[in-house]
Amino acid sequence: MLPAMSETFHGWAAREAGGKLEAFDFDPGEMRPEQVQVKVESCGICHSDLSMIHNHWGISQYPLVPGHEVIGVIEKTGDQVKGLKVGDRVGIGWFAGSCLSCHPCLTGRHQLCGQAESLIVGRHGGFADKVRANGEWAVKLPSALDPDRAGPLFCGGITVFAPIADLGVRPTDRVGVVGIGGLGHLALQFLRAWGCEVTAFSSNPSKAEEARKLGAHHVVDSTDSAALRKIAGTLDFILVTANVTLDWDAFLAVLAPDGRLHFVGAVLEPVPVPAFTLIGGRKSVSGSPLGSPATVATMLDFCARHHIAPVTETFAMTEVNAALDHLHQGRARHRIVLKR
Predict the structure, then answer these.
(1) CA angle, 243 as apex, 213 and 114 as ends, to 5°?
(2) Numbered ranges of CATH 3.40.50.720 in the chain
(3) Residue 56 and residue 103: Cα distance in Å, rounded?
(4) Residue 130: beta bridge partners?
(5) At 268, is the pLDDT very low, low, confident or very high (cuts 50, 70, 90)?
């Protein structure tokens, strides 16, 4: 057997923590039989990319090619890949591999696999012309979805859709979304289409009108204690997409009996949870990462059916540093997509 020919991928990489991204060519190594190789058409930018560039989590390796909201077309498949073929348009998010043999994988919870591989941890991601991932994490994009806008669904979208689908949120529920940004603006659309009565919580009054257009029936100032007391005991589910510290006791009080306060935003300060509040109302506090490949596929079908899409701004891939600065300065409305 002839040895596999090496390839050269062309990307944009940070060579040190916090460094500007520079043009970077690299050999991805031998392609594994369970992988697909995807020609990148576009890639969303997520706050997690900024965290990885700056090594906020202590897991970055340099040079680092970020990017984990990839849309592209399969140009090569490994021998073990099933259900995908050359020419399929797919999306790839944070995860790029799972073991397929542990209990979480065998029960359809691949995102909880202890050996899960990330697209940009110890490998290079989607700010490049090509990327590789295991076949199970390359999910076909429905033709009804705009590929130029769909990338953020594979991280921001599935982050908020998965708890709605997995935790039993009902169409009759009264729900809240804390933070109306890159995650929250998608959560409002999902929950409205799900059939829920939706309350948006934001400290920015300028976002009220947009929140209603995106699906909120009500808008409440997340820092207004009196406004929170006024709706005490009324919501069945509150999804926290913000990463700032708020009065969590007040939000627990907003929950109805059996209500759940669920975190997908990476709040940096510990969240105080008074036991008596939980016990008295049989309330719960939880969190989650992204969703399984099956849940991603369900989300995409849901988006196609209900005409849900991220609100995006587009930059050329060569403008990646300007795009990252735009996000870092908090000016993105609401997700950024890099086009090749």
Answers:
(1) 110
(2) 168-287
(3) 31
(4) 39
(5) confident
Question: Is the pLDDT score of 4 beyond 80?
Answer: no
Where do the CATH 3.90.180.10 domains begin and end in the chain?
9-155+291-339
- Strand segments, DSSP code E, in 35-160 are 35-45, 70-77, 89-92, 95-97, 117-118, 130-134, 139-140
For 213, residues 6+ apart whose C-beta sits below 8 A from its C-beta are: none
CATH class given for the domain over 168-287: alpha beta
**Cα–Cα distances in Å, from 126 out to 58, 147, 204?**
20, 15, 32
Q: Where are the alpha helices (DSSP H) in the chain?
A: 47-53, 103-106, 156-166, 184-194, 208-214, 225-230, 248-254, 275-281, 293-306, 320-328
Q: Does domain 9-155+291-339 have CATH number 3.40.720.10?
A: no
Compute the average pLDDT of residues 279-303. 97
Question: Which residue has 């989650």 as its token pair?
Answer: 288
Could you identify the residue written with the tokens 């997409």?
A: 241
3-class SS of residue 218: strand
Query: pLDDT (tens digit, 9 = 90+) per residue, 156-208?
Result: 999 999 999 999 999 999 999 999 999 999 999 999 999 999 999 999 999 99
Name the band, by pLDDT with cuts 50, 70 and 90, for residue 335.
Answer: very high
How far, CA to CA in Å, does 289 sit from each of 17, 200, 306? 24, 21, 24
314 contacts: CB under 8 Å, gap ≥ 6? 148, 336, 337, 338, 339
